[in-house]
Design brief:
CATH superfamily: GAF domain
Oligomer: single chain
Strand content: 15-25%
Number of helices: 4
CATH topology: Beta-Lactamase
Distance between the termini: 38 Å
Helix content: 25-40%
Number of strands: 6
Structural class: alpha+beta
Radius of gyration: 15 Å
Order of helices and strands: HHEEEHEEEH
Number of domains: 1
CATH class: Alpha Beta
CATH architecture: 2-Layer Sandwich
């Protein structure tokens, strides 16, 4: 199956947000998640809720989801958007690099990266990306959180700060 550049009918293109709009939206999303989730929420419930709440509050999120560590590679977990890659080897693409380095990766222009090694093009409509490592309470890597935008340059230090904060608060590391 090959990816199409035609935007699926059920997915909207990304809308730009200023830094101040991001701050407000992230604060609202974090508050909503803190009211929605509790210590007894399951892993899948947490992941699905984060996807939904963030995609609702941040209209430049085109694809949002988790890739979970499984048998030494990343495996797609809960997400919202077009079909994602099912498996990603550690060190391959932006998600694999974030998992391998355990550091957030921000990509201004996905199409400027070497396809297949630096970036894995699951959807040609994705133009920029942020990938944040997700740690469990023992500070072990359990997943990466991947967000794509149809706009170039959507993600910055505001996104990094808030996503790292929300993920740490939710998963306990």
């Amino acid at each position: 199956m090959s990816a199409s550049t035609e935007m699926p009918y059920f997915i909207n293109p990304s809308l730009p947000f200023t830094a101040s709009e991001k701050e407000v939206a992230y604060a609202q999303a974090k508050e909503e998640l803190s009211l929605l989730l509790d210590k007894d929420s399951t892993l899948i419930t947490k992941m699905a809720s984060i996807n939904c709440v963030l995609k609702t509050h941040l209209p430049y999120f085109y694809w949002v989801g988790f890739y979970m560590i499984n048998n030494g590679r990343l495996e797609v977990g809960p997400y919202q958007g077009t079909l994602g890659c099912l498996y990603i080897d550690l060190g391959r693409g932006v998600c694999g690099k974030a998992a391998q380095t355990k550091e957030t990766q921000i990509v201004e222009d996905c199409h400027a990266l070497i396809q297949g090694s630096e970036h894995i093009a699951c959807d040609p409509n994705s133009h920029s990306e942020i990938v944040v490592p997700v740690f469990d309470p023992e500070k072990e890597l359990m997943a990466v959180f991947d967000v794509d935008s149809t706009l170039t340059g959507s993600f910055d230090e505001v996104d990094q700060k808030w996503l790292e904060l929300i993920l740490a608060a939710t998963f306990g590391a």
